[in-house]
Structure formats: C-alpha cells, structure tokens
Design brief:
With about 200 residues, the chain is mainly beta. The chain has one helix and 15 strands; from the N terminus they run H-E-E-E-E-E-E-E-E-E-E-E-E-E-E-E. Strands 2, 3, 5, 6, 7, 8, 10, 11, 12, 13, 14 and 15 form a twelve-stranded mixed β-sheet that branches. It has a three-stranded antiparallel β-sheet with strand order 1-4-9, with no helix packed on it. Strand 5 and strand 6 form a beta hairpin. The protein starts with a helix and ends with a strand. The relative contact order is 0.22.
C-alpha cells in the first residue's frame, strides 16, 4: 500500500524539476501543474496623505491548488518581491513576505499548511513606496495635475508611472519557491493634505 504522507511529498516534488526528492515508491503519473500562481495590486491608485501611504499599490501574491487532492505539508512561508519603476533605473526595492502577511485565514494550524482543492492562498504586505534611501517613488513623478473633489477638497494626481514587479513565493518547507512571471502595472499617485508638488500642472 502507498503511504499517504509519501504520496503527498511526491506530488509536491513533481511540480518543481529543480527539487531533489528521494522516491521510495514506484513512479506514478503526476500532474505537471499543481499550484497556479497569481499576482495583482490592491489598487492602481496610491493614496498618500501627509507624506505617508494610506492605501493602494500593495502587491498580492496568490497560489491556487488545481490538483485533485488536498495539499498538506509543513509550512514555510517566504516570499521575495522586487519592485522598481520602469521609467527610472536605480529605483529597486525588495520586500520579504512571511507567514504574518497571509491574508487567507485558517490555512495554517500548528506547523502545517493545508490547501484544499481549488482553494487559493493569498499573501500581501503593505509598503511605504520608498527606496532604501528613503526617497519616495512619487518624488519621481514628472507632472502633477490639480484635482478637486465634489466638495471642493484639493488634491494632486500624478501622471502614470509603471511599477515592475518580480516575485518568488515558497509555502511548503520541502518544496522550493515558485517564481512568478514578471508583471508591470500602471499606477497613479494622489497627494492629499500636502503642499503643491514640484512640476505641478494647473488643470481643472
């Protein structure tokens, strides 16, 4: 009889050709894809109030179990997200995601992560849109546009910049990290309760 625990390990190992796993059981046919990666932004509009990011532009990584069995193994949640502005070299910033950044509840009990069939794990980390030098990404904006709300509140909105995102994510200790296809997002910064920025264009 096949050991259920060994079978789970073999299924996970088969997903990644670079992972070295001992195979104590006869080889069996396993699906080529078990975890499907996904990436999105919390919002393409980044709201900045008094020089601090309040919302938007946070990268959400996801993995969906498309296998016909539940995946359950010892958890090791670690992601690396590298961000940069396409228009400006030298703007790279790296975030390290961990278990506290999971936004899908109930998947980890003790040290075990269990991902049911067709269930999606999501992870996100808010960040300040600043480089390690503390220079903010919105300081690279080439033009700002004057805006007012229907209540007459003034704010400034940037022309679009392009955020390039590269990421890897590992969720099981015995399975190597998954590399996500690079993505590019057009983002807009809004400045609220802040002085008029440089290069502002007086548009209605």
């Amino acid at each position: 009889m096949r050991c259920p625990e060994c079978h789970r390990v073999l299924v996970l190992c088969a997903v990644f050709s670079g992972l070295s796993c001992e195979e104590p059981l006869p080889p069996r046919s396993n699906p080529a894809i078990v975890l499907v990666p996904g990436m999105q932004l919390s919002s393409n509009v980044v709201r900045v109030e008094r020089d601090m990011v309040k919302s938007g532009g946070f990268v959400i990584l996801s993995l969906r179990n498309v296998h016909d069995e539940v995946l359950s193994e010892e958890a090791f949640v670690r992601g690396y997200v590298t961000l940069s502005l396409r228009e400006f070299s030298g703007t790279t910033h790296t975030l390290v995601y961990g278990q506290p950044d999971l936004i899908t509840p109930g998947l980890i009990v003790g040290n075990t992560l269990t991902l049911p069939v067709q269930r999606t794990l999501e992870i996100m980390q808010p960040w300040d849109h600043r480089m390690v030098t503390d220079k903010a990404y919105w300081q690279f904006v080439l033009r700002w546009n004057r805006r007012t709300t229907d209540k007459g509140i003034l704010y400034w909105e940037s022309d679009s910049l392009h955020l390039v995102v590269k990421a890897t994510l590992q969720i099981f200790k015995r399975v190597q990290a998954i590399r996500f296809p690079p993505r590019e997002y057009a983002i807009v910064y809004q400045l609220w309760d802040m002085a008029e920025p440089a290069l502002a264009k007086q548009t209605p």
